[in-house]
Design a protein that fits this description.
With 271 residues, the chain is α/β, with parallel strands linked by helices. The chain is 49% helix and 14% strand.
Amino acid sequence: MIDYIIHHLRLHFNSFLQKIFILSFKDLIDNKVKLSEIQKRQVEFALNDINEIYINKEKVKEFLATFKYPLYFFDFETYQDVVPKYDKTKPYQQIPFQYSLHILYEDGRLEHKEFLGDGINNPLYDIVDSMIKDLSKEGSIIAYNDSFEKSRILELASVVEESREELLSFIDRFIDLAYVFQHGYCYNKAMGGSFSIKSVLPALFPSDEELNYKNLECVHKGDEASSAYLELANMNEEEYNKMRKNLLAYCRLDTLAMVRIYQKLLELINN
């Protein structure tokens, strides 16, 4: 019995040693660590310094075939309140105060629409009215990690009850652009194993300054947008107008990025 226990302790200890001494991709191979297909590709690209873009054309074609024009590339910006300011909202609920929307038509035309609250008044009713007007009733709504946008719409439907039916009609139209990358159908070493839009975009467009978040002023990511919006009410007119411009530029880039990623995927499967 003691020998049996010692044997299993050794096995577990050896397994533990393997885990703590895996410091590189090569260690993963040498220790025969079980990897998913996506992880295997990441290791292969890193070890062999492969810089080309991997694309599973068949899977990506199947995915893109579900898109229905016009395409609405949509993104919310939100903030959280510890103590709710507005009726029917909860502590720490994400409050949408802004969205950007790029509309891509089948003939290639690209149109941009946007909404940004004033930072003073309740933005929820106005943002719903604007969404209903801008999103129309036909066409796919594209988001990146669409569970966030869909959750916010469900919450809006509980607050703005008179628009509940119209808001809920948007849900089934959503398509998650992140799906392609999360399932390993498109990969580049520069993504570094991350499938966030902030990793995917520079990997696919390394030299495109128009798509570089670093070129934006003041607002470069979501938490900065939230903080900036909450400060609007305390700014003088010059500061206020400048920060609104920065907020609009940031959110606009989020949806333009999705348009460009979609177009890049089309290019890759057709080459």
